[in-house]
Specification:
Layout (H helix, E strand, L loop, with lengths): L1 H5 L2 H9 L2 H6 L3 H13 L5 E5 L7 H7 L3 E6 L2 H10 L4 E4 L12 E7 L7 H14 E12 L3 E8 L2 E7 L2 H10 L2 E11 L9 E10 L2
Parallel strand pairs: 1-2, 1-4, 2-3, 4-5
Antiparallel strand pairs: 5-9, 6-7, 8-9
This protein binds S-adenosylmethionine.
Length: 212
């Protein structure tokens, strides 16, 4: 119990959800579409960071299968264990991205799929800003979130109590632009995950490039 008190809330949540997350979200076509967009822009052997890599599928698995040098980071030890087993072609670290050293201009691409939701707005801006600076000039980033204008609200996600913070699609695009990204394309959809009592979730995907 003491250990739990000192762990990031996201680690507690996603340790409990584990492999069920992939089952519920695996059929998410917009996620797969955004990976195709990214793959079309990556030179062979690109260095890609997947932030909040979850089970490793589909993001790290897809990019590693295409021959890229993929590193996933996730704060949940259970998720990292699943990713290591499922995606031997990528490397995974158990770390909180808020504390992760990110050398400037070291990455060709960054993926951030639904991994900011348990951070404050200030933390989300700070993390995205550091990720942008870690991109090489002309590098690419895909950012995805639940597009709702909510701050620190209590929700139940896949049976787990969670405090969530998110943005409307417009606010999220502004966060990306303020961090120095050009939003090349914005994909919005409603997605209903496959688990009992799931409801449609509004999602936004930002396809971005570092131009500055
Ligand atoms: C909603 S899941 C999405 C997983 C994966 N990105 C996907 O779309 O399939 C969010 C993931 O981000 C991770 N996460 C949340 N906050 C994090 C943080 N501060 N640092 C690293 N990982 C984090 C969670 O543990 C979880 O595995």
């Amino acid at each position: 119990m003491t250990e739990g008190l000192h762990r990031a809330p996201a680690a507690v949540t996603f340790d409990a959800i584990g492999a069920a997350y992939e089952k519920a979200f695996a059929s998410c076509e917009p996620h797969l579409r955004s990976l195709e967009w990214l793959l079309d822009r990556l030179a062979p052997g690109s260095r890609v960071l997947d932030v909040g890599s979850g089970t490793g599928r589909p993001t790290a698995a897809t990019l590693a299968a295409a021959g890229h040098d993929v590193r996933g980071v996730d704060v949940s030890p259970v998720m990292v264990g699943l990713a290591v087993r499922q995606v031997p072609g990528a490397v995974f670290d158990c770390a909180d991205v808020r504390e992760l050293p990110l050398p400037e201009e070291s990455l060709d691409a960054v993926c951030v799929y639904f991994s900011l939701l348990q951070m404050t707005r200030a933390e989300q801006s700070e993390v995205v800003g550091r990720l942008v600076r870690a991109l090489k000039p002309s590098g690419h980033m895909v950012l995805a979130t639940v597009s709702l204008d909510v701050e620190d609200v209590d929700v139940v996600f896949m049976g787990q109590p969670v405090r969530a913070t998110a943005y409307s699609a417009e606010q999220f695009a502004k966060l990306a632009a303020d961090a120095g990204l050009t939003v090349v394309y914005q994909d919005e959809c409603d997605f209903t995950p496959s688990y009992p009592d799931a409801v449609p979730e509004p999602h936004v995907y930002l396809y971005c490039r570092r131009d500055k």
